[in-house]
Amino acid sequence: MASQKTLLVIGGCGNLGRSVISKFKSNWNIASIGLNNNNESNKNIILPQNQSASQYVNEVKQQLKSFSSSYDAIICVAGGWNGGSIKDSNVFETYHRMHSVNVIPSILAAHLSTHFLNKNGLLVLTGAGGIINNPCHDMIGYGLSKVAVHSLASTMAVSKDMPEGSTVITILPKVIDTPQNREAMPDSDFNTWAKPEQISGLLKMWAEGNNLPKTGSFAMLNVQNGSVVPEYI
Amino acid sequence: MASQKTLLVIGGCGNLGRSVISKFKSNWNIASIGLNNNNESNKNIILPQNQSASQYVNEVKQQLKSFSSSYDAIICVAGGWNGGSIKDSNVFETYHRMHSVNVIPSILAAHLSTHFLNKNGLLVLTGAGGIINNPCHDMIGYGLSKVAVHSLASTMAVSKDMPEGSTVITILPKVIDTPQNREAMPDSDFNTWAKPEQISGLLKMWAEGNNLPKTGSFAMLNVQNGSVVPEYI
Q1: CB-based contact A103 B144, cutoff 8 Å
Q2: What is the CA radius of gyration of chain A?
C-alpha cells in the first residue's frame, strides 16, 4: 500500500473514465469524481447536479484530502459533444451544456492540481483534435468550450502554482470508439477510431513516468496499425 | 431618416459603449443592449439580471425586430476584467463572472448578427491585447473568457450563417483610459492608454465602410502620437 501511487480521475463514469480506472486499478489507489459511482474506484465523489462548481468545490477538496494528502496523477476525461451553429435558436442551451461538461471539469482538475498534485506529478486534460486549425461552425458550443480547455492547458504548463517538476499533457482525441459513437456513425470504419483502452494504456505509461513528453505537450491521438500514436503539435 | 444606418451596441452602458453611442448618434439610429439605460440611444433593451441568456434571447430578438428589421453594424463592447489565479479558493466565482461579462455578450452579438446583420454589415467583437502570446496565470478567468471570444471571432469570419459581404473585426485593447483604470493604476502614464473616444472613432470609420480591414482581422490597439493605431496580428 505504501508504494502504491494515487490517481484522481475526473469524469470516472464516462467511457474513457471507466477505462482509465480499469487500467490503473491493479496497482494504483483511485479516487473518482463524477456524476455517478464507479465501483472499481477506491473512492467516489459524486457531484451534486443542482450545485455550481463554486458551491461544491470546498466539499470536493475535503473529501479528496480525507482519501489522500496528495495525488501522483490527476486525469480529467470528463467531456461531451453537441453539434449546432451560432444561428440556432437554442444556441445558448447547447453552449451552456458544452461549457458545463468540458470547461468546468477541466478548471476543477487544474485547480485541484495546484492543491493536491505531488512534485513531479502528472496533470492530463482532454482537448479536441477535431477543432485544431478548423473553424467549428457546425459545433460552435463544443468548439468554444474546447478552445478554453486548450488555453487552460497552456497556462497550467507554465503556472507557478503547479508543483515542481510536474507535467501537463493535453490529449486531443478525434473520434473515440464508444457505443454512442458507433450508433451515431454506423457507416464509419471503426478501426480508424481510438479505443478507450488504448488511450488509457497511453495515459498509464505516462502516469508511471515512462516515455513522458515535455510539459505543455498537446498530443493528437492518431490511429496507426490498430494502435494509438500521439502526434505532438 | 431613410438614409440613416442602424447600429446595435451590446454593452451600451460601459465606458466604451457610452463613447460609441455618443460618437455614432449624430447620423446613426442606435439600439443599445445593456444592464441599464443609455439616454443617448434611440432604443434600449435592458437585460434582466436574474435570467440566463437562453431565457432572455427571444425577447431581445423581438425587441430588436420591432426597432429595425436589420442592422448595418453590431458592436459588442461589453466586458470586464478580474485578476486571480487558478489556485484561488474563489476561482470559480471569478471565472463565472468573467464568463458572464465577456463570453455571453459576444455569443449574443454573433447570434444576433446571423439573424439581423445586413449584407456587407460589420460585426465587431472585443478581445484582449494583453493575452496574445501571454500565459495568463494572474488573470485565469479573464484569459479563458477572452480566448473563447477570439475563437468565436475566427469562426464567425468564415461562418456560412453570416450575411454576404459582411466583415468581422476583433479589437484587442490593452489598457483603456477609464476612470476605473486610472484609479487602479494611478502611477501609470495615461498617455500610453487608448481613450474610449479614439477607439469609437476607429469603429465609426470602419462601420461607415471606410478603410476597413479584411474580415477575420484582429486589431491590436496600440497608441502612437496620441492616437490609436491598429496593428493587425
Answers
A1: yes
A2: 17
Q: What is the pLDDT of residues B111-168, one digit of tens each?
A: 999 999 999 999 999 999 988 887 778 999 999 999 999 999 999 999 999 999 999 9
Predicted pLDDT at A136 = 78
Q: Which three cell numbers stand for residue A5?
A: 501511487
Q: Which residue has the cell 468540458?
A: A102
Predicted model pTM: 0.94
> Closest Cα of chain A to B225: distance in Å?
34
Which among A58, A92, A140 has the least Cβ separation from residue B57? A92
- Residue B227 pairs in a beta bridge with B224
| Contact residues on chain A for B147, CB-CB shorter than 8 A | 147-148, 151
Query: What pLDDT is stored for residue B41 in this prediction?
Result: 98
Is A144 within 8 Å of B152 when comparing Cβ atoms?
yes
List, for residues B59-104, the tens digit of each pLDDT value. 999 999 999 999 999 999 999 999 999 999 999 999 999 999 999 9
Counting one residue from A and one from B, how many pairs have CB atoms under 8 Å apart? 113
Per the structure block, which three cell numbers stand in for B71? 442592422
- Strand-pair category, B167-172 with B217-224: parallel
Residue type, A206: W
- Alpha helices, DSSP H, located in A158-213: 179-184, 196-207
Residues of B with CB under 8 A from a CB of A: 52-54, 57-58, 85-87, 89-93, 95-96, 99, 103-104, 107, 110-111, 114-115, 135-137, 140, 143-145, 147-148, 151-152, 154-156, 158-161
